[in-house]
Structures are given as structure tokens and as C-alpha cells.
Amino acid sequence: MIIEIDDDLLTRWSAEQLQAVRPLLEELAVRMRRSLRLLDSLLGVESDRPDLAREHDRLCYDLHEVRLQVEALEHDLSTARAWIETLQVKVAQFEDDEIENLYASVGLSPNAHDVVVRAARRALLGHYHPDRASHGDKSSMASRFAAASAAFDTIMELRG
Fold first, then answer.
1. Residue 13 CB contacts under 8 Å (≥ 6 apart), including other chains
2. Is the pTM of this model over 0.90?
3. 138-159 and 114-127 helices cross at what angle (nearest 10)?
């Protein structure tokens, strides 16, 4: 805002009129200086430091670059999360297949009742016990017994 005061206008005023207007002009000048300082601080420019304008521009450019990097990182993060979800689904499928294979190895289904599991354990371990095998089959029966025992131990741990 530019305020021009015509000298001819001031010469036509009396001393009392000028005296009455003076405080208003001084208050206007104070407000204008305050507004200019505020504007300079918002723009990041000070009158005694012209290099601040360049610094402000450089900082704006740096801020823009950082925002681009943040967007790229957010994209990478969302891609990584999608991969993690895909891998979790595959791991869950693999674990489900392992559990089904574990139950199938002892002739049970994963939804078998605890009573059935305990009865199958007693029956199968009794059937594969090495003391019941003939002398030539003791080693194969011992390995079958160990495998069945380990399978039932894992099943019991899973059922917790």
C-alpha cells in the first residue's frame, strides 16, 4: 500500500488540524512498519540479509525433494507390506499342509477329538513297539516307533 501526501494539501491545513492528524499518521506508520516486518518474516527475507531469499528458495527445493523421497518410501513400504501379506498366506498354507501331513502320518484328521488322538497314540505306539517285533524287524520297528512318537508329541504340543 502506498500513501501519498500532497504538500499543497498540508499547506492548506491549519496548525491545529495538522496537530490533530499527526497522532493518526504516526499510528499508521507504526502499523505499516509492523506489517512489513511480519511480511518479511513470513517470506523469510530481511532487509539487511538479501542472501536469505536464495536460502529460502534452496530450502523450499530441499523440502520438495524430501517430500518426493517420503512418497517413494511410502510406496516401497506399501509394496513390502503386500509382499509380506503374500508370504504370510503362503507360509500359512505350508503350515496347514504340514499339519495335515503330520496327522495323516498317524492315520488321523486334524479335526479329530482329543480322546481319539490319545486312543490312536496308544494303539499305534503299541503296534510299532520294538519289543513286539521279530528279531530281524526290530530296527525298522524302532524307527517307525520313534517317528510315530515324535508325530504324536508334535500333535499334543499343537493342541496345547
1. 21
2. no
3. 170
